[in-house]
Write a structure and sequence with these properties.
This is Polysaccharide biosynthesis protein. It is built from 13 helices and 20 strands. Strand 8 and strand 9 (283-285) form a beta hairpin. Strands 4-3-5-6-7-8-9-14-13-12-10-11 form a 12-stranded mixed sheet, sandwiched between helices. The protein has 2 domains: 1-72 and 83-88 and 130-286 and 335-351, 3-Layer(aba) Sandwich (Rossmann fold), CATH 3.40.50; 357-446, ANL, C-terminal domain (GMP Synthetase, Chain A, domain 3), CATH 3.30.300.30. It has 451 residues and is of the alpha/beta class.
Length: 451
């Protein structure tokens, strides 16, 4: 508790606002005020930010200037949401093909490049400006605060870690950063029974105030504890993310850890999209940072109806994300939350469904490991992983450019670190990866699970 107060009042402001000269804390304060505005007030705020973004994109982004000219419209012609619906949706493939043209001319030297995990099978490189990073960091912190998990509290993360062999300087920098933020890290992609036992012992000995985890990893830990009738200290809050959370998983986690689970939804391109508050009536959309649409056949889906998630980042001026379809399916709630926040609710998310992969020793590994690994290779346009047997993987690759032999060797080595040296890996270069009969694109497929 002493460190939390020290971090919140001195260390973090000095680091974030002083040393790094970022506005994260200023934006966090604004976001915490915004959440109690009415929906009408939030929509007016959001529309004002959207109009500014559209004008900027028209003036500074060659790609968007071309779109406006093709449509024969000016940003001033977009006066309502129905007008905005006429603006084209941007797919992952279009972002791959046009990402250089999307970058704003006046931000060319002010952006950092990131790569998505490719959880829909299509890795995407995108640019991000400093101001947008500060907004999205503040939005994530607000979402975590709803779960009583604030920066500086002792938090256990069961998450993806860097692949390959990071340099000593990189490892030291990460260790110092996690130490400052009072985080302890476990690798969710190498989370076998031995690691789960070590994690349980850590929880019982150190009593973290929160756990942030890939959904599958924390569920597997709860199941390991429950199946073996082990004792586990209660944890004040658990935050799940990166994968769909099912009711049966929530129920077991809440039973084992004697706490409430707070679900979150996001994607690497924009970070946090929505998060649960203390009422657990749905996930509040961060509409003061993003313009989120849920569309069915190109039109707004009715509350309770499934639709495609389409996102506009209101603050990334470096590379505007306007009506970006991230590949997920969600359901908007018809109800307002009883907490009193004006932020609307998403009732359910059903996206990026990936089969789990079984290691040679029987350990179950989240399908999310493969997007996390393959995002490191820019030459990959699309991929699919198929587990044929307990010791055989087929990885289908659509190339943007020729993939080097060393890159495949790197992938094989990293996969075998997680799945075992006996795992046979067959890389197959293909021109296209077919959709399922229902029109879905599966990133990982376990034929073992189908037997």
């Amino acid at each position: 508790m002493i460190y939390k107060a020290l971090f919140k009042n001195i260390l973090y402001p000095v680091y974030e606002s002083g040393i790094r000269r970022r506005k994260t804390l200023h934006y966090l304060k604004k976001l915490n005020q915004n959440q109690w505005m009415s929906l009408d007030e939030l929509q007016a705020l959001q529309w004002g930010e959207l109009k500014k973004l559209l004008n900027h994109a028209y003036e500074q982004s060659p790609y968007y200037r071309g779109l406006f000219q093709t449509l024969n419209i000016h940003p001033d012609d977009i006066k309502s949401h129905s007008d905005f619906l006429k603006f084209p949706i941007c797919s992952r493939e279009e972002m791959v093909n046009h990402n250089q043209e999307m970058v704003a001319r006046n931000y060319k030297d002010k952006v950092s490049l990131k790569t998505t995990g490719g959880s829909t099978g299509v890795p995407v490189q995108f640019a991000l400006d400093r101001n947008s990073y500060e907004w999205r960091t503040a939005a994530a912190q607000r979402g975590y605060q709803w779960a009583n998990c604030e920066a500086g509290q002792h938090t256990l993360y069961i998450w993806g870690v860097d692949v390959g062999n990071p340099s000593f300087v990189s490892r030291a920098k990460n260790a110092l950063y996690h130490r400052l933020f009072n985080r302890t890290m476990f690798n969710c992609f190498n989370f076998d029974d031995k690691e789960m036992q070590r994690c349980l012992e850590f929880i019982n000995a150190k009593r973290p105030t929160g756990i942030v985890s890939f959904t599958t990893a924390i569920y597997n830990l709860a199941k390991y504890i429950d199946d073996n009738d082990l004792q586990c200290a209660s944890v004040p809050s658990i935050i799940t993310g990166a994968e769909k959370l099912y009711d049966y998983q929530r129920e077991l986690m809440e039973k084992v850890f004697q706490t409430k689970v707070f679900n979150t939804y996001g994607c690497r391109e924009v970070m946090l999209i929505a998060a649960e508050c203390e009422k657990h009536e749905g996930l509040h959309v961060t509409m003061d940072n993003l313009f989120v649409e849920i569309l069915k056949d190109g039109k707004p889906a009715a509350p309770g109806e499934s639709g495609e998630v389409v996102i506009t980042d209101l603050h990334n001026y470096g590379m505007p994300f306007i009506r970006y379809k991230n590949g997920d399916i969600a359901v908007q709630s018809a109800e307002a939350c009883s907490c009193g926040r004006g932020l609307p609710l998403i009732k359910d998310i059903d996206g990026r469904k990936m089969d789990e992969i079984v290691a040679c020793d029987g350990k179950v590994v989240s399908g999310g490991f493969f997007p996390h690994l393959l995002k490191e290779i820019d030459e990959i346009q699309k991929f699919q992983v198929i587990q044929k047997t307990s010791n055989n993987l087929v990885i289908k690759l659509v190339q943007k450019q020729n993939i080097k032999a060393q890159q495949l060797e790197f992938c094989s080595a990293e996969i075998k670190k997680v799945l075992g040296d006996e795992m046979e890996i067959d890389f197959q270069f293909v021109d296209e990866i077919p959709l399922t009969p229902s029109g879905k694109y599966r990133v990982t497929i376990s034929e073992i699970a189908q037997r």
